Write a sequence for this structure.
Protein backbone atom coordinates (compact mmCIF):
# COMPACT_ATOMS: atom_id res chain seq x y z
CA UNK A 1 0.00 0.00 0.00
CA UNK A 2 1.24 3.43 -0.95
CA UNK A 3 0.17 4.85 2.42
CA UNK A 4 2.70 2.53 4.11
CA UNK A 5 5.55 4.38 2.34
CA UNK A 6 4.38 7.76 3.56
CA UNK A 7 4.27 6.56 7.16
CA UNK A 8 8.04 6.32 7.20
CA UNK A 9 8.61 9.83 5.81
CA UNK A 10 9.58 12.16 8.65
CA UNK A 11 8.39 15.33 6.90
CA UNK A 12 5.00 13.82 6.14
CA UNK A 13 4.75 12.75 9.78
CA UNK A 14 5.56 16.26 11.06
CA UNK A 15 2.99 17.72 8.67
CA UNK A 16 0.30 15.28 9.82
CA UNK A 17 1.11 16.00 13.45
CA UNK A 18 0.53 19.72 12.84
CA UNK A 19 -2.71 19.01 10.92
CA UNK A 20 -4.05 17.05 13.88
CA UNK A 21 -4.01 20.16 16.08
CA UNK A 22 -7.57 21.53 15.89
CA UNK A 23 -6.67 25.24 15.79
CA UNK A 24 -10.12 25.89 14.38
CA UNK A 25 -12.47 28.85 14.55
CA UNK A 26 -14.32 30.06 16.51
CA UNK A 27 -11.93 30.70 19.43
CA UNK A 28 -8.99 28.56 18.37
CA UNK A 29 -6.59 27.39 21.08
CA UNK A 30 -3.12 28.09 19.68
CA UNK A 31 -1.14 26.70 22.64
CA UNK A 32 -0.73 23.22 21.09
CA UNK A 33 0.57 24.89 17.89
CA UNK A 34 3.08 26.90 19.94
CA UNK A 35 4.24 23.74 21.72
CA UNK A 36 4.54 21.87 18.44
CA UNK A 37 6.53 24.72 16.85
CA UNK A 38 8.84 24.83 19.88
CA UNK A 39 9.63 21.16 19.30
CA UNK A 40 10.22 21.92 15.61
CA UNK A 41 12.57 24.78 16.51
CA UNK A 42 14.41 22.45 18.83
CA UNK A 43 14.75 19.81 16.11
CA UNK A 44 15.96 22.43 13.61
CA UNK A 45 18.35 24.00 16.11
CA UNK A 46 16.76 27.42 15.55
CA UNK A 47 15.83 30.07 18.13
CA UNK A 48 12.12 30.72 18.57
CA UNK A 49 10.24 33.70 19.96
CA UNK A 50 6.58 34.07 20.83
CA UNK A 51 5.04 37.54 20.56
CA UNK A 52 1.63 38.68 21.72
CA UNK A 53 0.82 41.79 19.66
CA UNK A 54 -2.90 41.63 20.53
CA UNK A 55 -3.50 39.42 23.59
CA UNK A 56 -2.32 36.23 25.28
CA UNK A 57 -4.78 34.11 23.30
CA UNK A 58 -3.22 35.15 19.99
CA UNK A 59 0.47 34.28 19.83
CA UNK A 60 2.73 35.08 16.88
CA UNK A 61 5.51 32.50 16.68
CA UNK A 62 8.78 33.31 14.89
CA UNK A 63 11.66 30.92 14.23
CA UNK A 64 14.87 32.53 13.01
CA UNK A 65 17.76 31.28 10.92
CA UNK A 66 20.44 33.90 11.10
CA UNK A 67 22.23 34.95 7.92
CA UNK A 68 25.94 35.60 7.48
CA UNK A 69 25.27 39.29 6.79
CA UNK A 70 22.90 40.07 9.63
CA UNK A 71 22.57 43.75 8.80
CA UNK A 72 20.82 43.03 5.47
CA UNK A 73 17.01 43.16 5.47
CA UNK A 74 15.64 39.69 6.23
CA UNK A 75 13.26 37.30 4.47
CA UNK A 76 9.91 36.50 6.10
CA UNK A 77 8.20 33.18 5.42
CA UNK A 78 4.71 33.61 6.80
CA UNK A 79 1.80 31.23 7.38
CA UNK A 80 -1.27 31.27 9.58
CA UNK A 81 -1.99 28.66 12.25
CA UNK A 82 -5.78 29.01 12.28
CA UNK A 83 -8.21 27.10 10.08
CA UNK A 84 -11.88 27.58 9.23
CA UNK A 85 -14.69 25.52 10.80
CA UNK A 86 -15.67 22.08 9.52
CA UNK A 87 -18.89 20.15 8.98
CA UNK A 88 -17.57 16.69 9.90
CA UNK A 89 -20.71 14.96 8.61
CA UNK A 90 -19.74 16.09 5.10
CA UNK A 91 -16.24 14.67 5.30
CA UNK A 92 -15.28 11.13 4.29
CA UNK A 93 -12.31 11.29 6.70
CA UNK A 94 -12.06 12.93 10.15
CA UNK A 95 -11.14 16.60 9.47
CA UNK A 96 -8.42 16.58 12.13
CA UNK A 97 -7.29 13.00 11.56
CA UNK A 98 -4.83 13.65 8.71
CA UNK A 99 -5.61 10.22 7.23
CA UNK A 100 -3.66 9.17 4.14
CA UNK A 101 -5.52 7.11 1.55
CA UNK A 102 -3.99 4.65 -0.92
CA UNK A 103 -3.45 7.45 -3.47
CA UNK A 104 -1.37 9.38 -0.93
CA UNK A 105 -4.02 12.04 -0.34
CA UNK A 106 -3.75 13.59 3.12
CA UNK A 107 -7.18 14.69 4.34
CA UNK A 108 -7.43 17.47 6.93
CA UNK A 109 -8.67 20.99 7.47
CA UNK A 110 -5.62 23.14 6.82
CA UNK A 111 -3.97 20.66 4.43
CA UNK A 112 -4.24 23.36 1.70
CA UNK A 113 -5.03 26.47 3.74
CA UNK A 114 -2.35 26.71 4.94
CA UNK A 115 -0.65 24.39 7.39
CA UNK A 116 1.00 22.77 4.37
CA UNK A 117 2.95 25.93 3.54
CA UNK A 118 4.12 26.52 7.13
CA UNK A 119 5.45 22.98 7.41
CA UNK A 120 6.94 23.07 3.91
CA UNK A 121 8.98 26.13 4.89
CA UNK A 122 10.35 24.22 7.89
CA UNK A 123 10.96 21.06 5.85
CA UNK A 124 12.84 23.08 3.22
CA UNK A 125 14.97 24.75 5.88
CA UNK A 126 15.69 21.40 7.51
CA UNK A 127 16.91 20.08 4.14
CA UNK A 128 19.02 23.19 3.44
CA UNK A 129 20.59 23.03 6.90
CA UNK A 130 21.35 19.34 6.49
CA UNK A 131 23.19 20.15 3.25
CA UNK A 132 25.31 22.62 5.22
CA UNK A 133 24.01 25.68 3.35
CA UNK A 134 24.28 29.19 4.80
CA UNK A 135 22.78 32.35 3.32
CA UNK A 136 23.51 36.04 3.47
CA UNK A 137 20.12 37.12 4.73
CA UNK A 138 18.43 36.14 7.95
CA UNK A 139 15.26 34.09 7.45
CA UNK A 140 12.31 34.47 9.82
CA UNK A 141 9.57 31.84 9.69
CA UNK A 142 6.39 33.24 11.24
CA UNK A 143 3.22 31.47 12.31
CA UNK A 144 0.37 33.88 12.99
CA UNK A 145 -3.14 33.59 14.46
CA UNK A 146 -6.49 35.01 13.33
CA UNK A 147 -5.95 35.23 9.56
CA UNK A 148 -9.21 33.50 8.71
CA UNK A 149 -11.26 36.16 10.49
CA UNK A 150 -9.32 39.18 9.22
CA UNK A 151 -5.99 39.22 11.07
CA UNK A 152 -7.00 42.00 13.45
CA UNK A 153 -5.62 39.93 16.35
CA UNK A 154 -2.64 38.67 14.36
CA UNK A 155 -0.72 40.15 11.46
CA UNK A 156 -2.46 43.54 11.57
CA UNK A 157 -1.20 44.56 15.05
CA UNK A 158 2.04 42.62 14.55
CA UNK A 159 3.21 44.73 11.58
CA UNK A 160 2.72 47.86 13.69
CA UNK A 161 4.72 46.53 16.64
CA UNK A 162 8.28 47.41 17.60
CA UNK A 163 9.09 43.66 17.58
CA UNK A 164 8.15 43.48 13.91
CA UNK A 165 10.31 46.46 13.01
CA UNK A 166 13.26 44.81 14.77
CA UNK A 167 12.94 41.82 12.43
CA UNK A 168 14.01 44.22 9.65
CA UNK A 169 12.06 42.44 6.92
CA UNK A 170 12.85 43.21 3.30
CA UNK A 171 10.59 40.70 1.58
CA UNK A 172 7.81 38.27 2.51
CA UNK A 173 6.29 35.09 1.17
CA UNK A 174 2.76 34.07 2.17
CA UNK A 175 -0.08 31.90 0.97
CA UNK A 176 -1.40 31.49 -2.54
CA UNK A 177 -3.96 28.96 -3.63
CA UNK A 178 -4.00 25.46 -5.13
CA UNK A 179 -4.15 25.14 -8.91
CA UNK A 180 -6.16 22.47 -10.73
CA UNK A 181 -3.87 22.81 -13.76
CA UNK A 182 -0.10 22.42 -14.09
CA UNK A 183 0.31 26.21 -13.68
CA UNK A 184 1.34 27.84 -10.38
CA UNK A 185 -0.44 31.11 -9.55
CA UNK A 186 1.72 33.83 -7.95
CA UNK A 187 -0.13 36.68 -6.27
CA UNK A 188 1.35 40.17 -6.21
CA UNK A 189 -1.67 42.22 -5.11
CA UNK A 190 -5.17 42.06 -3.67
CA UNK A 191 -8.41 43.81 -4.51
CA UNK A 192 -9.79 46.30 -2.01
CA UNK A 193 -12.78 45.10 -0.06
CA UNK A 194 -15.56 47.58 0.63
CA UNK A 195 -18.36 46.66 2.96
CA UNK A 196 -21.21 49.00 2.05
CA UNK A 197 -24.33 49.53 4.15
CA UNK A 198 -27.26 51.65 3.03
CA UNK A 199 -29.74 52.65 5.73
CA UNK A 200 -32.61 53.81 3.58
CA UNK A 201 -35.36 55.90 5.16
CA UNK A 202 -38.66 56.66 3.40
CA UNK A 203 -42.27 57.52 3.87
CA UNK A 204 -44.12 54.88 5.87
CA UNK A 205 -47.80 54.07 5.68
CA UNK A 206 -50.46 51.78 4.31
CA UNK A 207 -49.54 49.39 1.53
CA UNK A 208 -52.62 50.36 -0.54
CA UNK A 209 -51.32 53.89 -1.26
CA UNK A 210 -48.89 55.28 -3.82
CA UNK A 211 -46.76 57.41 -1.52
CA UNK A 212 -43.70 59.18 -2.88
CA UNK A 213 -40.20 58.58 -1.51
CA UNK A 214 -40.63 55.05 -0.20
CA UNK A 215 -37.60 53.12 1.02
CA UNK A 216 -38.45 50.35 -1.47
CA UNK A 217 -38.15 52.71 -4.47
CA UNK A 218 -34.84 54.03 -3.20
CA UNK A 219 -33.51 50.53 -2.65
CA UNK A 220 -34.63 49.62 -6.17
CA UNK A 221 -32.76 52.62 -7.63
CA UNK A 222 -29.53 51.89 -5.75
CA UNK A 223 -29.70 48.19 -6.53
CA UNK A 224 -30.27 48.84 -10.23
CA UNK A 225 -27.25 51.18 -10.38
CA UNK A 226 -25.02 48.69 -8.62
CA UNK A 227 -26.32 45.77 -10.69
CA UNK A 228 -25.71 47.76 -13.88
CA UNK A 229 -22.11 48.21 -12.76
CA UNK A 230 -21.96 44.51 -11.91
CA UNK A 231 -23.26 43.53 -15.36
CA UNK A 232 -20.45 45.59 -16.91
CA UNK A 233 -17.90 43.60 -14.93
CA UNK A 234 -19.54 40.29 -15.87
CA UNK A 235 -19.25 41.36 -19.52
CA UNK A 236 -15.60 42.39 -19.14
CA UNK A 237 -14.78 39.01 -17.66
CA UNK A 238 -16.69 37.18 -20.38
CA UNK A 239 -15.25 39.19 -23.28
CA UNK A 240 -11.61 38.88 -22.24
CA UNK A 241 -10.37 35.36 -21.51
CA UNK A 242 -7.13 36.86 -20.15
CA UNK A 243 -8.98 38.36 -17.19
CA UNK A 244 -9.45 36.48 -13.92
CA UNK A 245 -11.85 37.22 -11.09
CA UNK A 246 -9.14 39.22 -9.25
CA UNK A 247 -8.91 41.57 -12.24
CA UNK A 248 -12.51 42.78 -12.11
CA UNK A 249 -14.74 44.42 -9.52
CA UNK A 250 -17.30 42.17 -7.85
CA UNK A 251 -20.55 43.43 -6.34
CA UNK A 252 -23.08 41.36 -4.46
CA UNK A 253 -26.17 42.23 -2.48
CA UNK A 254 -25.66 40.21 0.69
CA UNK A 255 -28.53 41.21 2.99
CA UNK A 256 -31.72 43.23 3.06
CA UNK A 257 -33.44 43.87 6.39
CA UNK A 258 -36.61 45.83 7.11
CA UNK A 259 -40.36 45.85 7.28
CA UNK A 260 -42.97 44.53 9.71
CA UNK A 261 -45.80 43.04 7.65
CA UNK A 262 -46.89 42.83 4.03
CA UNK A 263 -49.41 45.71 4.03
CA UNK A 264 -47.20 48.24 5.83
CA UNK A 265 -44.66 50.34 3.90
CA UNK A 266 -41.59 50.40 6.17
CA UNK A 267 -39.84 53.59 7.31
CA UNK A 268 -36.42 51.93 7.03
CA UNK A 269 -34.72 49.27 4.92
CA UNK A 270 -31.08 48.33 5.46
CA UNK A 271 -29.13 46.80 2.58
CA UNK A 272 -25.59 45.38 2.65
CA UNK A 273 -23.37 44.97 -0.38
CA UNK A 274 -20.07 43.12 -0.57
CA UNK A 275 -17.91 45.05 -3.03
CA UNK A 276 -14.31 44.21 -4.03
CA UNK A 277 -12.72 46.88 -6.14
CA UNK A 278 -10.21 45.90 -8.79
CA UNK A 279 -6.97 47.85 -8.91
CA UNK A 280 -8.00 49.85 -12.00
CA UNK A 281 -10.92 51.46 -10.14
CA UNK A 282 -10.40 54.89 -8.60
CA UNK A 283 -11.58 54.34 -5.01
CA UNK A 284 -12.54 57.94 -4.29
CA UNK A 285 -14.47 58.24 -7.57
CA UNK A 286 -16.35 55.04 -6.83
CA UNK A 287 -17.30 56.28 -3.36
CA UNK A 288 -18.41 59.62 -4.78
CA UNK A 289 -20.65 57.75 -7.26
CA UNK A 290 -22.31 55.83 -4.44
CA UNK A 291 -23.01 59.11 -2.62
CA UNK A 292 -24.40 60.60 -5.84
CA UNK A 293 -26.70 57.60 -6.41
CA UNK A 294 -28.00 57.97 -2.83
CA UNK A 295 -29.04 61.54 -3.67
CA UNK A 296 -30.54 60.55 -7.03
CA UNK A 297 -32.52 57.82 -5.28
CA UNK A 298 -34.29 60.49 -3.26
CA UNK A 299 -31.93 61.15 -0.36
CA UNK A 300 -32.45 60.40 3.32
CA UNK A 301 -30.05 57.47 2.98
CA UNK A 302 -27.32 56.93 5.51
CA UNK A 303 -24.46 55.26 3.79
CA UNK A 304 -21.53 53.57 5.53
CA UNK A 305 -18.45 52.34 3.74
CA UNK A 306 -15.14 50.90 4.88
CA UNK A 307 -12.62 53.67 4.22
CA UNK A 308 -9.74 51.79 2.77
CA UNK A 309 -7.66 52.61 -0.26
CA UNK A 310 -5.89 50.30 -2.65
CA UNK A 311 -2.68 48.95 -1.19
CA UNK A 312 0.07 49.31 -3.82
CA UNK A 313 0.89 45.98 -5.49
CA UNK A 314 4.27 44.33 -5.10
CA UNK A 315 6.53 45.40 -7.96
CA UNK A 316 7.18 42.55 -10.37
CA UNK A 317 9.89 43.86 -12.63
CA UNK A 318 13.68 44.03 -12.65
CA UNK A 319 13.69 46.90 -10.15
CA UNK A 320 12.67 44.45 -7.39
CA UNK A 321 15.62 42.08 -6.76
CA UNK A 322 13.45 39.77 -4.63
CA UNK A 323 11.00 39.34 -7.49
CA UNK A 324 13.92 38.57 -9.82
CA UNK A 325 15.27 35.99 -7.33
CA UNK A 326 11.84 34.39 -6.99
CA UNK A 327 11.24 34.32 -10.74
CA UNK A 328 14.69 32.90 -11.45
CA UNK A 329 14.07 30.11 -8.95
CA UNK A 330 10.77 29.12 -10.56
CA UNK A 331 12.32 29.31 -14.03
CA UNK A 332 15.28 27.16 -13.03
CA UNK A 333 12.80 24.63 -11.67
CA UNK A 334 10.86 24.77 -14.94
CA UNK A 335 7.61 25.84 -13.24
CA UNK A 336 4.91 27.54 -15.29
CA UNK A 337 3.78 30.50 -13.17
CA UNK A 338 1.07 33.10 -13.68
CA UNK A 339 1.01 36.47 -11.94
CA UNK A 340 -2.39 37.26 -10.50
CA UNK A 341 -4.35 39.52 -8.19
CA UNK A 342 -5.65 37.57 -5.20
CA UNK A 343 -9.46 37.65 -5.30
CA UNK A 344 -9.83 37.60 -1.49
CA UNK A 345 -7.78 38.92 1.39
CA UNK A 346 -4.65 37.44 2.99
CA UNK A 347 -2.17 38.70 5.58
CA UNK A 348 0.02 39.92 2.71
CA UNK A 349 -2.04 43.10 2.59
CA UNK A 350 -0.75 44.13 6.03
CA UNK A 351 2.82 43.44 4.95
CA UNK A 352 2.40 45.42 1.72
CA UNK A 353 0.70 48.22 3.63
CA UNK A 354 3.88 48.88 5.61
CA UNK A 355 5.85 49.00 2.37
CA UNK A 356 7.33 45.50 2.29
CA UNK A 357 7.06 43.55 -0.98
CA UNK A 358 5.12 40.30 -0.59
CA UNK A 359 4.18 37.42 -2.86
CA UNK A 360 1.45 34.84 -2.32
CA UNK A 361 2.47 31.38 -3.44
CA UNK A 362 1.38 27.88 -2.42
CA UNK A 363 3.18 25.22 -4.47
CA UNK A 364 0.19 22.95 -5.15
CA UNK A 365 -0.45 22.43 -8.85
CA UNK A 366 -2.63 19.68 -10.34
CA UNK A 367 -4.65 19.92 -7.13
CA UNK A 368 -8.37 20.70 -6.83
CA UNK A 369 -9.05 23.97 -4.98
CA UNK A 370 -10.51 22.80 -1.67
CA UNK A 371 -9.71 25.56 0.79
CA UNK A 372 -12.63 26.03 3.23
CA UNK A 373 -14.33 23.04 1.53
CA UNK A 374 -15.22 19.54 2.78
CA UNK A 375 -12.59 16.81 2.32
CA UNK A 376 -9.74 19.31 1.96
CA UNK A 377 -6.63 17.35 0.97
CA UNK A 378 -3.17 17.57 -0.51
CA UNK A 379 -1.28 14.70 -2.08
CA UNK A 380 1.82 13.63 -0.19
CA UNK A 381 3.94 13.75 -3.35
CA UNK A 382 2.66 17.28 -4.14
CA UNK A 383 3.60 18.29 -0.60
CA UNK A 384 7.12 16.87 -0.92
CA UNK A 385 7.60 18.42 -4.37
CA UNK A 386 6.62 21.74 -2.76
CA UNK A 387 9.37 21.28 -0.18
CA UNK A 388 11.91 20.97 -3.02
CA UNK A 389 10.47 24.05 -4.73
CA UNK A 390 10.78 26.06 -1.51
CA UNK A 391 14.41 24.98 -1.05
CA UNK A 392 15.30 26.64 -4.34
CA UNK A 393 13.15 29.72 -3.75
CA UNK A 394 14.37 30.27 -0.18
CA UNK A 395 18.00 29.79 -1.20
CA UNK A 396 17.63 32.38 -3.98
CA UNK A 397 15.76 34.93 -1.83
CA UNK A 398 18.13 34.65 1.11
CA UNK A 399 21.13 35.27 -1.10
CA UNK A 400 19.81 38.44 -2.78
ZN1 LIG B 1 -5.27 30.92 4.31
Amino acid sequence: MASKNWDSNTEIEYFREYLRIPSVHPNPDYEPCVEFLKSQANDLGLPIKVYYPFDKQNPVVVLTWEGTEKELPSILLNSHMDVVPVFPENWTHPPFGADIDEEGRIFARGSQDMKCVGMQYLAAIRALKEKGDRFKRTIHISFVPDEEVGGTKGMSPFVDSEDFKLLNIGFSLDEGIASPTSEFPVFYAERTRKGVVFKISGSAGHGLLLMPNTAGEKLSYLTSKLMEFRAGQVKRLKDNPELLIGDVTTINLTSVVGGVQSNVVPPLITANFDIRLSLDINVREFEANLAKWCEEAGGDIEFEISRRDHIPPTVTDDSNPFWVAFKNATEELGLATKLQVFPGGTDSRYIRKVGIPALGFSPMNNTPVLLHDHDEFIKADTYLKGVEIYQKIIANLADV
Observations:
- The chain has eleven helices and 17 strands.
- The chain has two domains: 3-190+312-398, 192-305.
- Residues 343 and 381 are 27 Å apart (CA to CA).
- The mean pLDDT is 96.
